[in-house]
Amino acid sequence: MKITYYGHSALLVETAAANVIIDPFLSGNPNSGISPAEITVDAVLLTHAHSDHLGDAVEIAIQNDCPIFAVFELAEYCKSKGAKVVHMNIGGAQERSGIRVKYTQALHSSSITEGDSWIYGGVAAGILLTVEGKTLFHAGDTALFSDLRLIGERHAIDLAALPIGDVLTMGPDDALLAARWLRADKVIPLHYNTFPDIAQDGEEFCDRLRQEGVEGFPLKAGESVEI
């Protein structure tokens, strides 16, 4: 499993079985370094509806003729825009085309802005993606919550991708505890340095992880790690 970071919370996962992109905020992201037209995938996975996560999901899904996995309300919204969808919700799992996707709780909000209107986007979620015996946990935008420990106990997580930006999600201190609870040997920090309000030092966070016996990867856009 090769995981490439494209800034903010966007991860491209490439395997022999399938390619998947999670939270593809690319064209509006000054740090992505890639355009939606360059993405070739078999599925798009969304943690929630905010524009910095929904991003270019519909465009990518349509150009690749592939489905968007999302919580029910967000899936219905994407369907209304012309995309194929797979309806998910918290605690549920599906296996399709060699990938297994399970949605977990996340403590965050979720909505879509259209003009002056706000559309309810269902609940925010985390995603457990299992392909070829390896499991990636993308926590989405979340606060620290105690059931992260349960997620770590119930699933063998090879790599966790955790937000560290603070203000809108958990910050580095809480993310450090989340990594411990999730029992992951490897961690990628997400959701930081895209905007001034969420400026953080990814290198320092990963240094702190290493002191806990966890391998941290402060990836820049376009950089990858394999598990």
Automatic annotation (TrEMBL):
Gene3D superfamilies linked to this entry: Ribonuclease Z/Hydroxyacylglutathione hydrolase-like (3.60.15.10)
InterPro entries referenced in this protein's UniProt entry, alphabetically: Metallo-B-lactamas, RibonucZ/Hydroxyglut_hydro, UPF0173, UPF0173_UPF0282_UlaG_hydrolase
Pfam families per record: Lactamase_B_2
GO molecular function: hydrolase activity
Coiled coil: none
Keyword Transferase: no
Keyword Iron in record: no
Residue span(s) of domain Metallo-beta-lactamase: 7-191
Source organism superkingdom: Bacteria
Catalysed reaction equations from the record: 3',5'-cyclic UMP + H2O = UMP + H(+); 3',5'-cyclic CMP + H2O = CMP + H(+)
Functional note: Counteracts the endogenous Pycsar antiviral defense system. Phosphodiesterase that enables metal-dependent hydrolysis of host cyclic nucleotide Pycsar defense signals such as cCMP and cUMP.
NCBIfam families in UniProt: PRK00685.1
Assigned protein family: Belongs to the UPF0173 family.
Record-given protein name: UPF0173 metal-dependent hydrolase B9T62_38320
Record organism: Paenibacillus donghaensis
Lineage, uppermost ranks: Bacteria, Bacillati, Bacillota, Bacilli, Bacillales
